[in-house]
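User: I'm curious what two different proteins look like when written out as structure tokens. Can you demonstrate?

Assistant: Sure. I'll show them one after the other, since each token string lines up with its own sequence. Here's the first protein:
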Amino acid sequence: MYRTHIHNPNVKPLIKTPLKNIPLADIPINFFWGDVNNTNFLTYQRNQHIPIYCGSCWAFSATSALSDRIKIARKAQFPDVNLSPQVLISCGPGDGCGGGDAFDAYQWIHEHNITDESCSPYQAFGHTNGIGCSAEIKCKNCLPNKGCWAQNRAKIYSVEEYGNVTGEENIINEIYQRGPVTCAIAVTEGLRNYTGGIFKDETGRK
């Protein structure tokens, strides 16, 4: 079984602009970034298990939330920017398709930048199982009869700050004011056998 949550305890938050708290009573109950005054600020959903299984949920989570925030910052301007999880599983922290942590991914993006899927498409292999880091993995271009090569002048994206957010009120504020967040869930035996109703984990696993 793949372990898909591997956090580096040496990674520390980088917070420059603490978020001002808005009382929950002042936040719309049904707020959804996918429909804000008939505008969708969310990028498309992707399947990490195509073309084959890859434990890259951490890379998809990190790039998806950040892509959404880019779309929010660009006021939903076309075209969408969909950041590349392939860059993370080939070049970034963690064990590629064997697991990683979205928080660590944001530190890596802050330090190294990341490209989008227009020049680094998802292949479902990472640095631990077949596709290591290279200039072409970060961004490549191809032409008929000329093959492919590293695209040196690629568009790159980064994050200026990153951190953790805990507690229902804080998470709601973060989403409402800034955009989608990443999260992880501990899949215990009880959750594996879940069939319905309200599930409460008693194991304390994180």
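Here's a second, unrelated protein for contrast:
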Amino acid sequence: MAERALPLAEPGLWGELRAEAPERFAGRPALILDRDGTLNVDTGYPKHPGDIVLVEPMVPVIRAATEADVPVVIVTNQSGIARGLLGWEDFAATNGRLVELLAERGCRIDLVIACAYLDGAPPPYGADNHPMRKPNPGMVLRATRVFRPNLTRWIIVGDRARDLEAGRRAGMHRGWLFGDAEVPAPAPGFSVRRLQGEADFAELIRDVTMLGRR
């Protein structure tokens, strides 16, 4: 795939709107998801489509959002690009495979935002504390340009504290932490639930389904 055909808003920022008739989501709450380690097994800077393996417990969550017509947004740091371990073409291939695997399971992805900026990296990706890189809220806030929602109703899911911190800094009120990462420090107005067992995933599915009824 030629680089000029890639949906790059700037050298280190990918913005791919996949939703059909995205205007129907205006003002509606969304489900924000980290990618590596949350949607696909974290293999350490996946470069090839064959590296993408779904995190199975998350599939019913995304399917619930799809069935409730809740917009599903991926926001992902991709420092492997800044480190020279892969390129945007590789990201296009792996992300395309992720979307394909999810579609086979009845799941839809409506927007993908990825940030390759990294402190101390060489040009064009070197940027200290770039506003788009999580835990900063830039990618979440960029999603609001598309869906124009009340952020307090959005849900964010990730496998690291920085994922949830990005949501909190953007103005969200709740997040779910997948895996055994350390829970972020308590913050007023922002609640965190850990995703560990079947009961937790069932509760998240109910939470996501309710978004479509508001």
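A detail about the second structure: The first helix runs from residue 59 to 67.
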